[in-house]
Specification:
Layout lengths: L4 E6 L3 H16 L3 E2 L8 E6 L4 H17 L4 E6 L2 H6 L1 H6 L2 E2 L8 H8 L22 E8 L11 H4 L3 E2 L2 H13 L4 E6 L13 H11 L5 E4 L9 H9 L6 E3 L7 H6 L6 H14 L4 E8 L6 H13 L2 E8 L17 H25 L4 E9 L5 E4 L5 E4 L10 E5 L4
Parallel strand pairs: 1-2, 1-3, 3-4, 4-5, 6-8, 8-9, 10-11, 11-12
Antiparallel strand pairs: 6-7, 13-14, 13-16, 14-15
Length: about 425
């Protein structure tokens, strides 16, 4: 009897990617063949996104295309758009099994039961070996859910409150990743900075020192953390870590105190400046990126200008710019004073131009410097591609397929 084939279709954030890595391994241990997204498959596991209405629309479209590609396939849907898709009459009829977010860590077990295989193996690993993985960089989910109530965000109502792995489990899984060949792991979560808070702890304050004491770990990146969550102990741990890369993504969302308050964010402009100054003192060469939402309800020109000037002042090298879009079910959906689309577009373009300027300055900083690159892919023309610890994208030649997942030392000669 031929083995079942399974493919993964994932939309949205790094947390979905982390979950897919676990599903992939559990499918392999179930004896199923994992195929790429373009290959015919017996099972489709679709991890959806609902951060915007557009993300929900794309999730519906992925389900339709999966059913069209194989009318006999088993289609499994999970993720943040799962409930909306289950209520959608057409899509509901296309899906065989919906797995809610609160039980999605057991997705493959539930799928085996659905397929009539109640007896399932005790899965040995949480992720596939690097050779079996989709990428050489592993995303490791260490916390789930969010207790914040940002007025623009629907995700806490879909992911639930914060639930974290204990420190020993995080260390065990980092060691497992190292043994499986991973050179780099991204610690991720819906609200990474809230790790351990449900236990009355600021968990990263104790997790990072414990990571720093360990040997035989992969290098570590942090997915995203809010400025107010960067306590002094955390900053000191980042500055002394042999494992954690000198790169952080700090999602500011705005630089205007008025808009930050309307967004129900916990940061102020003064706090942001102070935290980043402390970071630079502890990690002088740290690389920083950020997210900004443009055109939030009530954003006047002076509010946007405060954001622009703050970003221009701070040492960010890239801005992810998002024009505000109404998300039903959020507080922001009921706010007044919406920004006209043409004004929003003009502000987006101004920030994108600033981002390009900051990026070029940052790239020029690396000219002539020797850097270490983790090669992730190699093309047929022997060009290796990968990232440095500071998240600088590098192309280098010559490389062979044997160089994938290895560190290469190169000198930056062009941008």
């Amino acid at each position: 009897m031929p083995r079942r084939s399974v493919t993964f279709l994932s939309l949205g954030c790094r947390v979905n990617q982390a979950e897919d890595a676990s599903y992939r391994q559990h499918c392999l241990e179930s004896g199923w063949q994992v195929v790429d997204e373009k290959s015919p498959a017996d099972i489709f596991i679709i991890n959806t996104c609902a951060v915007t209405l557009e993300a929900e629309r794309q999730s519906r479209q992925v389900v339709r295309k999966a059913r069209q590609s194989n009318p006999q396939a088993t289609i499994v849907v999970t993720g943040c758009a799962g409930r909306a898709l289950q209520r959608h009459r057409e899509v509901n009829q296309l899906v065989d099994l919906f797995i809610p977010n609160l039980t999605k860590d057991n997705l493959v077990t539930e799928l085996r039961r659905f397929l009539g295989k109640e007896q399932h193996p005790q899965f040995q690993y949480h992720f596939p070996a690097v050779q079996e993985a989709k990428t050489t960089r592993l995303n490791l989910k260490i916390t789930e859910g969010c207790f914040e109530s940002c007025s623009f965000c629907i995700i806490p109502s879909m992911r639930g409150t914060v639930r974290s792995l204990d420190e020993s489990t995080v260390i065990q899984r980092l060691k497992e990743a190292y043994q499986l060949g991973y050179k780099e792991v991204v610690l991720t979560g819906i609200h990474l900075g809230a790790y351990g808070h449900e236990k009355g702890e600021h968990g990263l304050e104790t997790l990072f020192p414990r990571i720093n004491q360990e040997k035989d770990l992969p290098f570590i990146r942090l997915s995203s953390i809010d400025p107010h969550e960067l306590t002094v102990p955390i900053i000191e741990s980042l500055g002394s870590s042999p494992h954690i890369h000198p790169y952080l993504h700090l999602p500011l969302q705005s630089g205007s105190d008025k808009i930050l308050q309307s967004m129900r964010r916990r940061d102020t402009q003064a706090d942001i400046i102070q935290k980043i100054a402390q970071l630079q003192k502890a990690v002088p060469d740290i690389s920083l990126t950020t997210d900004i939402i443009v055109g939030f309800p009530g954003e006047k020109e002076e509010d946007f200008q405060q954001t622009y000037e703050l970003i221009e002042y701070l040492p960010f090298h890239k801005i992810h710019v998002f024009p505000f879009s109404v998300r039903p079910g959020t507080r922001a959906a009921y706010m007044k004073e919406h920004v006209y689309p043409e004004i929003k577009k003009e502000r987006v373009n101004r920030l994108l131009n600033l981002s390009q300027k900051l990026k070029l300055q940052w790239l020029n900083h690396w000219m002539g410097q020797e850097v270490k690159v983790l090669i992730e892919t190699v093309t047929s023309s022997e060009e290796g591609k990968g990232y440095t610890p500071h998240y600088l994208r590098v192309h280098t030649t010559p490389c062979t397929p044997k160089d994938v997942n290895s560190f290469q030392t190169v000198v930056i000669t062009a941008i």
